[in-house]
Amino acid sequence: MVSFLLVRVSRHGLARSNRQLGQLSGALGQSWSAVSVTVQSCFGFGSAG
User: Fold this and answer.
1) Please, what is the angle between helix 18-43 and helix 2-16, to 10°?
2) For FRET with 29, which of 4, 38, 39, 44 sits at 20 to 30 Å CA-CA?
3) Diameter of the chain by CA atoms?
4) Cα separation values, 5 from 1, 10, 11, 43, 44, Å
5) How far apart are CA 7 and CA 15, in angstroms?
6) Strand, helix or coil at 47?
7) How many domains does the chain divide into?
8) Domain that holds residue 30
């Protein structure tokens, strides 16, 4: 479901411009990093990655 949403967003960004897609992917990357770190901390996975 999430990957499908990301694909739609990516295609939409490409249809508009590569610069906007770059900004979007950068924001998504930062958000995903924060979420993954939070999840690892909550579930005690440690800093394996």
Assistant:
1) 160
2) 44
3) 41
4) 6, 9, 10, 26, 28
5) 12
6) coil
7) 1
8) 2-43
Q: At 11, list the tokens.
A: 């295609």
Residues ≥6 apart with Cβ < 8 Å to 9: 24, 28
Q: What is the enclosing helix (H) or strand (E) of 25?
A: helix 18-43
49 in a domain, yes or no?
A: no
20 within domain boundaries: yes
- The one-letter code for the residue type at 32 is W
* Dist CA 4 CA 41 (whole Å): 27
Token couple for 36? 């993954």
Tens of pLDDT, residues 1-49: 577 777 776 666 556 677 777 888 888 888 888 888 888 888 876 555 5
